[in-house]
Amino acid sequence: MAISNDKEFKTALAGLSTSQQRQVAASFVQRVFALSGDIRIKAALDAAARADVSDAELTVLSGAANTARVESFTQCGKETDWSAQAGHFVAKAAVACVKAAEAGSNLAWDAAMHARMARTCQTVADGAGTENVEAGEQYRLLEAFLNS
Amino acid sequence: MSASLEKGVRVLKEVIDAPIASYFNSCVHCGLCAEACLFYTETGDPKYTPIHKLEPLRRLYEQEYTLVGRLAKLVGLSKPVTDDELEEWKELVYNSCTLCGRCSVVCPVGNDIVYMVRKFREGMSASGHAPEGIIGAVNRTVTIGSPMGVKLPAVKAQMKHVEEDYGLPIPLDAEGAEYMVMLSSMEIINFPEYLAAIAKIMHQAGKTWTLCSTAFEATNAGMQIGNSDLARVLVTRIVDGAEKLKVKTVISPECGHAYTALRWEGANLIGRPFTFKVQHIIEVLGEFQEQGLLKTEGFETDRLTFHDPCQLARRGGVIKQQRNLMNMVAKNFVEMPDAGFMNWCCGGGGGASAIEEGEELRLEAFKKKKSQLDTVKPDRLVTACANCRIVLEEGLEHYQMDIPVVGLTEMIAEHIPDQTTEKGA
Amino acid sequence: MNDMQFLTWVRGAGLDIAVSIFLLGVLWRLIEIYSLGRKKDLAAPRQVSGASGWHTIFRRSVPPEGMMKKSPVSYIGGYTFHIGLAIVVFLFAPHILLIKNLTGLSWPGLPSQFIDLAAVVTMAAMVIVLADRINKPVKRYLSTFGDWFTWTLTFLPVLTGWMAVQHLLLPYTTMLALHILSVELLLVFLPFTKLFHAFTVFGSRWYNGTVNGHKGVAV
User: Fold this and answer.
1) N or C: which terminus of chain B has fewer CB atoms within 10 Å of its end residue's CB?
2) In a domain, B137, yes or no
3) Which of B94, B98, B135, B148 to mutate to test the interface with A (most CBs of A within 10 A)?
4) Average pLDDT of span B277-284
């Protein structure tokens, strides 16, 4: 199936099982991982990409990813480093991939949103304005995942 | 912006007024202010006693404004205020004070100690003794327009992100809108969900609103460092924007000090009353709730508690609204001890969280917040200030407490039924 | 100078000097403090009943939530000796007589045994409060010569007055003279020490209450 807008994107994601959501979410975040480079996030993404990851593993990894997220907040009054802030949103996206699933939550959508914000931070940092094609790339990744 | 001791002393002499004189003459050294200050209660170090943070100002007052003091100075019996002393006091006046105001409400003789600290900072700043972290924020405000270096392109990026991803239009520079929404740097940078929440709420309430391209920044670093000239520049920018767009109300975001700076100090800084209203977003939501313009569905069922930001509740007078809003969307809302008017500070306000060398002290002071949470044992913590959120998360992380922190405006918006138009096609 | 001359002096010239310095001192200090004035608050006020300077003048006498248990000695000791002093000063017959001679005003007093008890309780409370000042880190840290001096200035009149009535230690005439002298010292130094809080507490509470009342917060 072809995905051409966010409504379709969100609905398709919601239809996936939690494990499937984690896997496709991990692929969204992998696209922006270079903006962070934090090994805790890498570990979280690698685990989320596996269909056989256990709950115990997820708990440990989500703790580490959360620490990465909290550590990368920009403090009130500090100079904003948009590149660093991109890393913060990568961490936030990674947390969405591995946190405990709650009924009705669309963790893959959350991860996708945060990944897009990470990309936006990067384009702001580069002075390249606010145009980016992250959403479109995410649609392609989801289509590929659904077709496999 | 050259600083010198002479300049600092001159500034301090100017800020001393009858209230400050009355307060210094009323202090009986009872030490009760210390018992209200989390920096003292969690460290046990008496140097953090609030009234002690003002000792150089007190001496200056005595030497300049009392007969006995002036006579003593004449015969060489008084100790002048020096650069070394002010440098020593930097930690006391900035790192260990968030302008939370608890001291002012417990002093038995009625001293408004936080008012005096705020004024003392004017002298500290003019004499060059403000902390590195805040001086940076001030410089960026002067040169870039935002303490955190957030420029319009960044705001537009966020607007785009919200418009595309959440499907909600964000008006910019819409003249005649009823509300002008301000953002704090913190929200623009860390919490883009806030803008989405605003859009959703305004849409449901049927109210016209807008961002202002020349005045989107609410954070007032001038107020934190104690530089009234700078604080005035920031407020003037907002006033000009609001008057140009002819809005009825300016909304101050989920940031504590921004509200204090605009709502309570703003008019005094520019020397005339505002021609528009100023409300905190929580006040606006409270009003919408009362008027039936806020319709939510569903409830959070986990155990929630609320952290009252100091500048909103005790210092701002907005105490009931957040509780009414919580009860609208939460079935299991429990209050922590000392909640509301007497709540304990998160430990990071007033510029404190921008001071790197103060981090250890802040984390120690956080034990007070920890004890409140240990008593109430919530599943999640709700608050209405972007800086509190981060400070709370950092403290919770440090003490290994697994309590997610949520913003109240976002939580309310999550319970508004989705009526957004389709986007992205 | 013998006992009678001493007593005559403190009752006469001494009292005149002390009361004059006291009255002029109080007047001067009030002007010195309050003539500094304050700027008008131009922010739009928030009207909330019960939040005002006048309310705070009274409400601030009650410990705020959670504070009593932090320092019960400060509150209970403080109330006790302040109320005790008021009882002893204003409800003891000889004092009321003195005030009548000076101003023409008078009112009924309390039985002397009651005043005696009040004096003893006042002194005990003051000793406890002094001990607390020495023992507690914050109070000790804040304390200066002024704190010890003013404690002594306040304690001596109660002690010497009580000793005079009890006919302790020295002949009554001497004890009485010492008592009056100690009161005169208290009067002379009151306007120029922290004891002046007796007058400024009203202004301070009022300013605090007004500023917060403007924001709709009842402090």
Assistant:
1) C
2) no
3) B148
4) 96
